[in-house]
Amino acid sequence: MSTATAPRDQATAAAPPPKAPKPKRRKPSSSPAGGILAPTMLTRLGLAGVAILSIFPLYWMIVIASRTTTDASGFPPALLPGGNLGEHIQEALTNPEANLLLGLRNSLIITGTVTISVVLLSTLVGFAFAKLRFRGSKVLMGTVLFSMMVPLQQLGIVPLYMVMVELGWLDTLQAAILPFLINGFGVFLMRQYVEQSVPDEIIEAARIDGASTLGIWWRIVLPALRPAMVVLGLLTFMLNWNEFLWPFMVLSDENPTVQLAIRQISTATWSADLSMVFTGTLISIIPIAILFVIFGRQIVHGIMEGSGK
Length: 309
What we know:
Elements: H1 2-14, H2 41-65, H3 69-73, H4 85-94, H5 100-131, H6 137-149, H7 152-155, H8 157-167, H9 173-177, H10 184-197, H11 200-208, H12 213-224, H13 226-241, H14 245-250, H15 258-266, H16 274-284, H17 286-308
Helix pairs in contact: 2-16, 4-16, 5-10, 5-13, 5-15, 6-10, 13-17, 15-16
């Protein structure tokens, strides 16, 4: 018995162990999000509705700008563009009562100066509040936050106007520039971004290497703040490009901004020419549209990076 079972035991020992069953592969989901955030038909319809509501005012502006005032006020309203857009654009740019070209130039000068000033000063002041320790910093930061909660421009429009009269700056571009060179929102935004994106260790290492405070701001802080600077710059440009009240107070019809020029188009005749008003509005949004095309990716990147932080 022992001799018969020995070869059987050796064969059993030499046999390889049975293979483990292969795990079943999960079938890839047909949705691009792996089934976790798969869009439903209701989601697609909602997004399509939001897109239509966002684009339709721009499309309607083009339709009215390319038609006559009679078509603009008719019923049912026209839904397709006409053939008068080129003629209306030429008339709006050459209308001596509107000064639209001068308004575009003045608005570019005012808005560009204010945007550059707000971005640079906000990064400098935000860096000081975030990384420098000095007496009264909390009180000053509280004052900045208070300026965001109170509409200082509307409350202080009369004192500001009196200051411009005393300086002799009425009907000059510096009168439209000075009150907007810095704002509390920009300072607060940059302070928060500096605190989250610039570690204290990098600043301490730069100080050990002998860098000055302005050198740290220029070489370390500004490159880290580039996404936030793009977002703040675009928001500031849009806000000041569409400003109407203060330029209306300090500038004349002969030296307007683009918004005042559009107003002059609407009041040039006894009855407002809606097609010309929409044409001037269409021309006025071209600089903002160009900025969105150039800096669109940087703007989205800056907003997403800020929300992630």
